[in-house]
Design a protein that fits this description.
Chain lengths: 298, 404
């Protein structure tokens, strides 16, 4: 049973179609990347998954059920722009919002203390939200998003504004959640985070699906038929290689259409060249993003 | 616990802990205390005037020798204005007046004083008036008639029922005071609560907490919890005011005196006060929630709700007209129009009888308005709550209602 099953959803605001016939699914136990340029419809899609707004048409199924009040307790959400009750204490804020997810007060308090301890925020639990730094507030909001042990967690730009230490802490917690079989949807503009954490991705632009599937497969599809090589010795002329681009510490060999990386490797070995690194070049997600979005902009 | 109850509890506690709420709750009894204090202070300062005051007069016409003791004022005769002026300057008399020879034909009396005043004090005017009347009539009519001419009317009204028996509820100011005070408190409480609700919603909207809330509860649960939580806080506020009232009345009775003993609750007042309190609250709470949903920030929301609170306050502005012209049809309109009904009905309960059909119509219109606005608010809530920074036009809201 997929954690999320989105089927042909459409949403318009004042005659402008924001999400247009979008379908995808997210499995349990995976971190799913949701990417796209600004205004692509990511947040609207997330809001429909969180039952904050209803789609004009199409279906949203969460954990095999149509969205209802009962399924809301299984959802965790960290919105892009964050805020909590400024005058309320850290612990009270967490406990109140957890109770709205169906948690009992006492168990919410216990779990809150545990998570505050895990994130190093325990000394601040009595402080008012307005006394916290932005990053600290974000950690608290993250705790609010996961305290009720949701089956599906949607995180909109979770790392924005976090220092490297907290970023690593958060990543570790996300991976733990995935290992517990939770489904996580990560929406961010930071492509390196997607590459590091996500198994599969969905890229949308103008409300439509433009890329969807396994990240490795997508990258392989967009690879630029070249290999990266670190070696010792003299390379000389190489059949099947149209261009040798010298980079810092390595060389990029651009292959012609008929030569495979395997053939190049064989030729290098037969020439007795000492190879320190041989890598089939795949473009970074960032580059794929620019290529795909650039194409649809044209 | 039910999620609506959780929101109710949170909103209630969040509101009653607000500094603004605590200040407003305490300030009303404190102002009343202050007023009583000022009243006592002023009446205390004014008390020496109750002591015997001496006023001089010069009788140029002749025949004004008797009745020189008028209550606390003693009149002393002087032969000439110069003598009187000297006594005035020396401080022997407070002021003096001259009865000129042509007084009978003109009625003019010339008064001289050292003090800067707007007009002669009422007690002085009455004393001079009675002194003149008594002397003019002396020997011409019996003493008792003179007393009646000075104070011909001591009106004692009794209200009868349709069967001719003495009605249990006699009306009058004693009957009016509690509804009048309650209507002011009700209006204040509604205005404050609407503001708190708008501020709360504005805050949640501005910091996007509303998204987290709506991912946990439905718009209906959120709205119901907020409205009821705010109503509970308002109830506490009014309860504090009402509980402090007997204490304050007790304090005041020592200075304001016997009037307090005439205070009486109009028939059905408690039942109707509770009904209109709750309905008034709900109406303005759902209205605030709707306005909170469509306005882009809490300041704009407060300006908008301000427009709707004007009809609520109109009955207070025209309270005196309401007292003196209770039969004007405008009061019927105000008692049925939902925004003004809560305050208007409470005021009218103290002023006159309200026909049953008007009460039924008024309550029915209020209930229908609450339901209507609630449904409307839930409908536009989801859509506009998330459209930050842009307030929809009326046309857009109507279109949204049609398409749902």
């Amino acid at each position: 049973m997929p954690a999320v099953e989105i089927s042909h959803i459409v949403k318009s605001f004042a005659d402008k179609v924001v999400v247009n016939d979008l379908s995808f699914s997210v499995a349990q136990g995976e971190i799913f990347g949701l990417i796209g340029p600004n205004g692509a419809g990511k947040t609207t899609t997330i809001r429909m998954m969180m039952d904050i707004i209803k789609p004009d048409s199409g279906d949203v199924t969460i954990l095999g059920e149509k969205l209802s009040e009962a399924t809301k307790n299984k959802l965790g959400y960290l919105p892009e722009e964050r805020g909590l009750y400024k005058k309320l204490s850290v612990l009270d804020s967490i406990v109140y919002l957890a109770s709205l997810k169906g948690m009992h007060r006492r168990s919410a308090e216990e779990k809150a203390n545990e998570l505050l301890n895990q994130t190093g925020m325990l000394p601040h639990k009595g402080k008012k939200i307005e006394e916290l730094s932005r990053g600290m507030g974000q950690i608290i909001q993250f705790i609010v998003g996961i305290i009720h042990d949701p089956e599906l967690v949607v995180l909109d730009e979770p790392f924005a504004g976090l220092d490297p230490v907290n970023t690593e802490l958060l990543k570790g917690m996300l991976l733990d959640l995935r290992n517990q079989g939770k489904a996580l949807i990560l929406s961010t503009h930071q492509m390196n985070e997607i590459e590091e954490l996500c198994d599969r991705i969905l890229m949308i632009n103008h409300g439509r699906l433009v890329l969807y599937g396994n990240l490795a497969e997508i990258k392989s599809k967009y690879r630029s038929n070249s290999v990266l090589l670190e070696f010792e010795g003299e390379l000389g002329e190489m059949p099947g290689v149209t261009e040798q681009r010298t980079r810092k510490g390595y060389v990029e060999l651009v292959l012609d259409g008929n030569t495979t990386p395997q053939q190049v490797l064989e030729r290098l070995v037969s020439r007795g060249i000492v190879i320190n690194r041989f890598e089939v070049a795949t473009p970074p997600l960032n580059e794929i993003f620019l290529r795909v979005v650039g194409k649809t902009h044209e | 616990m039910n999620k609506t109850l959780l929101i109710l509890r949170h909103e209630f506690l969040h509101t009653v802990k607000r500094r603004g709420f605590i200040v407003m709750t305490l300030i009303v009894p404190l102002i009343a205390l202050l007023l009583i204090g000022v009243f006592q202070l002023v009446s205390g300062v004014a008390r020496p005037t109750v002591e015997v005051t001496t006023i001089g007069y010069v009788d140029e016409l002749g025949g004004f020798q008797q009745y020189t003791s008028q209550g606390n004022i003693t009149l002393v005769r002087f032969d000439t204005p110069d003598d009187a002026t000297e006594a005035l300057v020396n401080g022997d008399i407070k002021e003096y007046f001259v009865i000129p020879p042509d007084y009978i034909s003109t009625g003019v009396i010339n008064r001289y004083t050292l003090e800067k005043q707007l007009a002669a004090l009422p007690a002085t005017t009455t004393a001079i008036n009675n002194f003149l009347t008594s002397n003019l009539l002396a020997g011409k009519v019996p003493e008792a008639t003179i007393a009646r001419i000075e104070a011909p009317l001591n009106l004692v009204s009794t209200r009868l029922t349709e069967t001719g028996a003495v009605a249990p509820e006699q009306g009058g100011y004693g009957n009016f005071i509690i509804p009048a005070v309650f209507s002011i408190l009700l209006a204040l409480s509604i205005v404050f609560s609407s503001t708190y609700l708008l501020q709360g919603l504005g805050e949640e909207k501005e910091n996007r907490l509303i998204e987290v809330l709506l991912s946990s509860v439905s718009a209906r649960q959120l709205l119901t919890g907020k409205v009821l939580g705010m109503g509970a806080a308002g109830l506490v506020q009014v309860a504090v005011w009402v509980i402090s009232a007997p204490f304050l009345l007790n304090l005041a009775s020592s200075s304001i005196g016997g009037f307090i003993s005439t205070i009486q609750l109009p028939a059905n007042f408690i039942v109707l006060a509770v009904v209109y309190f709750i309905l008034g609250y709900l109406l303005f709470a759902v209205l605030s929630a709707g306005i909170g949903a469509i306005s882009s920030n809490s300041r704009e929301g407060q300006q908008l709700i301000g427009i709707f609170t004007i009809p609520l306050l109109i009955p207070l502005w025209f309270m005196s007209l309401n007292m003196f012209f209770p039969d004007n049809p405008i009061w019927v309109v105000l008692a049925i129009f939902p925004l003004s009904a809560p305050v208007e009905v409470i005021i009218r309960l103290g002023v006159s009888d309200i026909p049953v059909w008007q009460l039924v119509a008024s309550i029915a219109v209020l209930v229908l308005s609450i339901i209507g606005i609630l449904l409307l608010t839930i409908r536009i809530f989801r859509t506009y709550l998330l459209m930050y920074g842009k307030r929809p036009g009326i046309g857009e809201v109507l279109r949204c209602l049609r398409t749902g």
